[in-house]
Amino acid sequence: MHSFEVWAPRAKEMAVQVDGIAHPMTGPDERGYWRAELDEAGPGSDYGFLVDGDTKAYPDPRSKWQPEGVHGLSRVYDPDAFDWTDAGFQAPPLASAILYELHIGTFTPQGTLDAAIEKLDYLRALGITHVELMPVAAFAGEYGWGYDGVALYAVHAPYGGPDALKRFVNAAHSKGLAVLLDVVYNHFGPVGNYTGKFGPYVTESHHTPWGGAVNLEDAGADEVRRFFCDNAQMWLREFHIDGLRLDAVHAFVDRSAIHFLEQLSAEIEALSAQLARRLVLIAESDLNDPRIVTPREAGGYGIDAQWSDDFHHALFSVLANETDGYYADFGGLRQLAKAIESTFVYDGRYSPYRKRTHGRAAGNLSQHRFLGYIQNHDQIGNRAIGERIEHMTGAPRAKIAAALVLTSPFVPMIFQGEEWAASSPFQYFANHDDPEMARLVSEGRKKEFAAFGWDPESIPDPEQRETFERSKLKWQETTEPRHAEMLAWHWELIRLRRSSADLNVGEPGNASVSFDEQAGWLMVQRGRVFVYCNLGAKDCRFSIRSWGRVLLASAAEVKFEDGVLMLPADAVAVIEMKEGSRQ
């Protein structure tokens, strides 16, 4: 026996088709739900909904299994059948975390969750504490980034489906690794979204860059919000996920008295207490608005942490000498110093790029409420050819980037392959099974970058399979000398991060920065740990009038003798001062 339920407030007639046979549903109730209870249905039964006499059966908006893809029928899935062995696992606190963002389709040659399990020992040995998966919710086509999801309760079938995700999480927990999942609640993908057949999931009152905005405040919004809050709870409860990364929350338009983020954070906090598990929410936001990560009782939305774009932009623009687009707001050591010390560079200041005042000061918020990184899927993949930091700056500056990220006051995150300076780019790829949409995506990509002066013929076609294949990691590189050297550098930095009490302080004011814009050097102090960076063209000498020792140096030419640190161009050294001494 199985009970079917679907929200379809505008429908006059509903039926559920199970294994080819239509069965009428009763409803709608006062909330707009239709129901049917069938003895002949159970786990493994294929079904779809018939709306107002339509002969086409549409997949369930809350389907947990789409074995034939997002256009096919849904399949009844028993969420309680999996044999979990992770009882008692507790995710480490974010304050002491090292995050690793990965894309299942390109992380291994096979591109599956089961194949990714084989790399968990590697991640544990590297010192990672949290694995952050890019979206796994089902989307149209075989491969893609995952941000065009349409069956948000189902795990993408080419990745292995729902049981494969459970196997991955169970295996990660057995090795002491927490798992975070990227979810997209601001829009639905353009192909395979059948929610409009059922109810007002999307509003035309507002738009996002990816289509109509999710309906969070118009008629029917209560059940739409319920749809997304229930989805978040499903991943955390049924799949044992330890936290969610919320994509582009700045695209939410919600003028309700209780903002959607506040509602979601309250529900997840209650779930965390119920399950006695540490659960976290991490937002992506470009608003520079501290309300997102301010506790609800202090008037904020109560999200645990957010990505720190200002730190990335300031660091990248200095290392890569890039000032196009939003990098026009950065480019100097002054901005980088402010990002490290104050989190937001634009904290109520005028932004030349936006041509308006932007942001608000982070105030007394812990810097552990912000993630620091030099690479992520967006900052690589949204470049014309998907090149990584080392491809643009060379290994010496990539080492400086890693040192500043992993000694920063923020929670550090690295992107797959970054730790060994992977040669593979991470390009934008998609596999839309709608030919017209595929054409529009390919042409749009070329036009977008042609406007920035790129030759359109040099832009990889996102709809071509080779663009996807080109983005897969080459794991054999980890043992090749050049890549092994970068891997060892990251290994040492992560060990230092995890062992140093000074580097694990997040309170405001815990980091102070000195710099010389003209000479090109910058020094970050975190308690007794000093990070010296030379981004200038000439050697730099620093007189250190107290005892210290070099913990890490990026180049053999770094010398520290008789209280003088000699730092060649494009080098970094991490120095620990004697307790009680002064630099």
From TrEMBL:
Catalytic reaction(s) noted: hydrolysis of (1->4)-alpha-D-glucosidic linkage in 4-alpha-D-[(1->4)-alpha-D-glucanosyl]n trehalose to yield trehalose and (1->4)-alpha-D-glucan
What phylogenetic lineage does the species belong to?
Answer: Bacteria, Pseudomonadati, Acidobacteriota, Terriglobia, Terriglobales
Where does it localize? Cytoplasm
Species for this entry: Acidobacterium capsulatum (strain ATCC 51196 / DSM 11244 / BCRC 80197 / JCM 7670 / NBRC 15755 / NCIMB 13165 / 161)
Which residues does the Swiss-Prot or TrEMBL record annotate as the active site? 247 (nucleophile), 284 (proton donor)
Recorded hits in Pfam families, A to Z, give: Alpha-amylase (PF00128)
The source's domain of life comes to Bacteria
The record ties this protein, via InterPro entries, to:
GH (IPR017853), GH13_cat_dom (IPR006047), Ig-like_fold (IPR013783), Ig_E-set (IPR014756), Trehalose_TreZ (IPR012768), Trehalose_TreZ_E-set_sf (IPR044901)
Gene Ontology CC = cytoplasm
Which named protein is this? Malto-oligosyltrehalose trehalohydrolase
Query: Per the similarity annotation, which family is this?
Result: Belongs to the glycosyl hydrolase 13 family.
GO terms, biological process: trehalose biosynthetic process
**Which EC number applies?**
3.2.1.141
Q: So where does substrate get bound?
A: 245-250, 309-313, 377-382
Record-annotated Glycosyl hydrolase family 13 catalytic domain positions: 79-445
> Which gene is transcribed and translated to give this protein?
treZ
Q: In which pathway does it act?
A: Glycan biosynthesis; trehalose biosynthesis
- Site (Transition state stabilizer) found at 378
**Annotated GO MF terms:** 4-alpha-D-(1->4)-alpha-D-glucanotrehalose trehalohydrolase activity
What UniProt keywords apply to this chain's record, in alphabetical order?
Carbohydrate metabolism, Cytoplasm, Glycosidase, Hydrolase
